[in-house]
């Protein structure tokens, strides 16, 4: 059992409330492009033991399960209701209700960690990144998939209208929770830009850090590697 601060409790509650319609709205509002983004992120993972942080309803883990013959697949999330759905979808995985900022795993146990559309919601991003590095094996890989702001001005305007007007309207209609779908574009606006995320990953000690845009920069994939331990001979 974990002690969650007020902000994390609110986030867990919000995602629990929208969990029944989460998958449908995700695919509907993104015209199914989210599936391509998740597949692309999973294709960058390496090794055989995987942790999906902020796993939600488990779509990323499902893709990991399809692609890799993994002896250890773990999904972590704050929201029990999201985890219940994930559990029904991915039979092979183990699910744990815990915050990204305090992962209940020993040091150096995973080959790769993925966090998809989760980092934006994590209250203490630096602590979470330190935790990711701690539980990764040396040489292990971190893949972060996250929304950001499109660079193209015209597309950016269109996207603003879509996310601040259309999405909350449809989101409320279907999930009956307007606040959650108003929170989404606001959280994207507040989320640091891609260079800042890169420097955050580097500052906690990840190396070979890079990012790549997806669909005009609506989303980005960030990758980093936990440095290999240096072995000294003689
Ligand atoms: C937008 S959903 C993403 C779910 C899934 N990864 C996907 O690709 O659809 C964000 C998820 O992050 C979880 N979350 C938010 N803050 C978290 C934290 N600090 N630790 C663990 N999970 C968190 C929420 O409960 C929610 O299920």
Task: Describe the fold and architecture.
- The chain has 234 residues and is α/β, with parallel strands linked by helices.
- It has one domain (6-225): Rossmann fold, CATH 3.40.50.150.
- It has 8 helices and 7 strands.
- Strands 3-2-1-4-5-7-6 form a 7-stranded mixed sheet, sandwiched between helices.
- The chain is globular.
- 38% of the residues are buried.
- The structure holds S-adenosylmethionine.
- S-adenosylmethionine binds at residues 8, 11-12, 15, 26, 54-56, 59-60, 76-79, 82, 99-101, 116-118, 121-122.
Write the layout of secondary structure elements.
Blueprint: H1 6-29, H2 33-43, E1 49-53, H3 59-67, E2 72-77, H4 80-89, E3 94-97, E4 110-116, H5 125-135, E5 136-147, H6 153-175, H7 178-190, H8 194-203, E6 207-214, E7 219-225
Parallel strand pairs: 1-2, 1-4, 2-3, 4-5
Antiparallel strand pairs: 5-7, 6-7
Bound molecules: S-adenosylmethionine.
The site of S-adenosylmethionine (SAM) has 23 residues, from helix 1, helix 3 and strand 2.
| Bulk shape | globular
Bound molecules: S-adenosylmethionine
- The structural class is alpha/beta
User: CATH fold name, please?
Assistant: Rossmann fold
- Spatial arrangement of strands, main beta sheet: 3-2-1-4-5-7-6
């Amino acid at each position: 059992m974990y002690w969650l601060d007020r902000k994390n409790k609110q986030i867990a509650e919000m995602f629990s409330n929208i969990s029944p319609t989460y998958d449908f709205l995700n695919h509907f509002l993104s015209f199914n492009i989210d599936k391509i983004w998740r597949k692309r992120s999973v294709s960058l993972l390496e090794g055989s033991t995987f942790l999906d942080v902020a796993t939600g309803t488990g779509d990323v883990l499902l893709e990991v399960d399809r692609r890799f013959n993994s002896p250890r697949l773990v999904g972590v999330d704050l929201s029990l209701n999201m985890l219940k759905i994930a559990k029904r979808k991915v039979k092979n995985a183990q699910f744990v209700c815990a915050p990204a900022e305090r992962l209940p795993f020993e040091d150096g146990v995973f080959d790769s960690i993925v966090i998809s559309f989760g980092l934006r919601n994590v209250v203490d991003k630096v602590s979470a990144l330190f935790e990711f590095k701690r539980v990764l094996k040396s040489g292990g890989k971190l893949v972060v998939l996250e929304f950001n702001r499109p660079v193209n001005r015209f597309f950016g305007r269109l996207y603003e209208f879509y996310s601040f007007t259309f999405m909350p309207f449809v989101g409320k209609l279907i999930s009956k929770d307007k606040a959650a779908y108003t929170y989404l574009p606001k959280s994207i606006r507040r989320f640091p830009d891609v260079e800042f995320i890169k420097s955050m990953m580097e500052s906690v000690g990840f190396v070979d850090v890079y990012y790549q845009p997806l669909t005009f920069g609506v989303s980005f994939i960030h990758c980093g590697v936990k440095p290999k331990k240096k072995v000294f001979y003689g």
